[in-house]
Design goal:
CATH class of the largest domain: Alpha Beta
CATH topology of the largest domain: Rossmann fold
Mean pLDDT: 90
CATH superfamily of the largest domain: Alpha/Beta hydrolase fold, catalytic domain
Largest sheet: 9 strands, mixed
Radius of gyration: 26 Å
Length: 623
Amino acid sequence: MKRAFAILAGAVVLAAGSPAAKAAHRDGRLIWGACSDAELPAPMECASLDVPVNWAAPGGRTVRLDLVRLPATEPARRIGSILGVPGGPGSSGIDDLKRAAPDLRELGRRFDLVGYRPRNHVWSKTMPAICLKPGTALEDPRSRERFAAQAAVMAKAFRDCQRADPTGLFAHLDAVSVARDMEAIRAALGEERLSFMANSYGGVTSIAYARLFPQRIRALYVDGVVNHSAGWNDQVLRVSVAFERNFRAFTGWCAATPACALHGEDPGAVWRALVRAADREPISATSPEFGEGEMTGWQLRQLAFPTDPGPDHANWLTFAESVDKARRGDGSGFGAWVLGNTRVWAMPGVLAMTCGDGRGYAGHAELRTYRRAAEKALPNLGSVRLDGLGCTGWPLKVANPSRPLLPDGLPPLLGAGSVHGDLVVTESFTRMVPGSVSVIYEGHGHALYLMGKKCPIRHATAYLALYQLGTTYRQLERDHRVRPLTISARRPEPGSKIRVVSGSLKKVYSCALDRLSYRVLESGYMTKDVLRYTPACKTGPGTSGSPVLDAASGEIVGINNTSNRDGGRCTLNNPCEMDRDGVITAKKATAYGTQTYWLTTCVAPGNAIDLNRPGCLLPRPGQ
């Protein structure tokens, strides 16, 4: 049964299969060879790369990273390599590639698909036994003194783990260190620029890489990722709001389903009474793996509810049965998951893979602020984060604190996520980079391309191959009965009728062009000569990147960009306008698009883009 916090608390991997056969690397370049692991059959090839444990001391100890490659099946049309960025932290990119390869055949025609086992996966296999011993039984500290006492106990557990570590990895498991490993892999692959497919916690690593090496990113597809730049509290609250909606959906389903163990009652009221009672008197639970233990309402709120109903609502049926048993004093239905997660997130060796990225609460005041926000927004599931509490005793300087990502030099990104969970955090990631869009998946799931979901895989394949199209528009029209739209060569006029066509939402917004705004500012970004719509076009989340069509000609005059959601000024999701005199104004629900006619001014014979063409309005690099 999948539980709510599996997405952001992380599916930490503590077990691993046998490694790939190691091939030597020479002069910084990988030498690929046959894999000795029987589970990695041809055409997979294997190699390895030694990187510094501490990138600030490159002449010191090293850690060996195993890699696998699926060579492009059409080498004459090869575009480059795609590196998988696994989640966890501690997951294996080799396992990801084995799992996803059958569904990525189309992508594999023109790309080498590369997976690797990052340093945190190596650590998960080799950490000393003391690092797997929980530092304490974590609890939600209601006073400053209890917070400090719990942090002190965890700090001792961290120091004991670090002293027992013979590799030096304990202090260098942060995403910045992993990102530098990724750059070493890029160089060893011999690629000037690399494409990436990141999932889940891989978003933290991707942001670290984008900060350090933006010029090395050819394309970046992010699937159910964490937007580290926004901060952990922000991300957990965002996704938990979606989980709260799922809980309300569960109560409605249960009320209408006789097979539900809570049918005929108010399921929400039963649940809230259960967690309140468990906070007063913990519920006994047993697990074959974790033995006997007790569960509080604090633990149940964040760990017990499965956001995915499962096939034929099997997960929700089991959840209702477990709630019914728990209110009678039998917590066995939740025992394995709750006791296991509580134990894992107190293990210093597990937490070391994420505390260096600033996962903990900065102090008791921050914890109280988060608790109030969570309890207000999430009446059924709101609680202080278990994983954040474990990191409060982190004894080292946070190597990779949350901070804004500057989009300079980055290509537009493509994201994908489930509307029932991680879409909201993925969208917060992609919206940092102008021109980026996210695919809305209406089903349940996490890391969708690893689950074989055809829709996001199709979009990812098209995006990653965007710069090297192998099919003509005529062929697209013949094979798929889809007629490509034409970009208008004329600058649109205020008052002209327009339509914003959202494929993801399957909706058309009809209105008029209100005006051409001199400048639009949003969270550090500035766009020039921007289309502003009349109020009839109430675009919102999920419509960014949609074409804006002239209603009369059907030609593209712009790309839908953003709208002011809350009435704020110049912040993310709250753009403002600046006129030629520098006067700033902002109005809630005002929507904007980016003009496209200037693209046509740079098209040379053969449909090639020529930035030096007379009259070209596109800026040249450096301008």
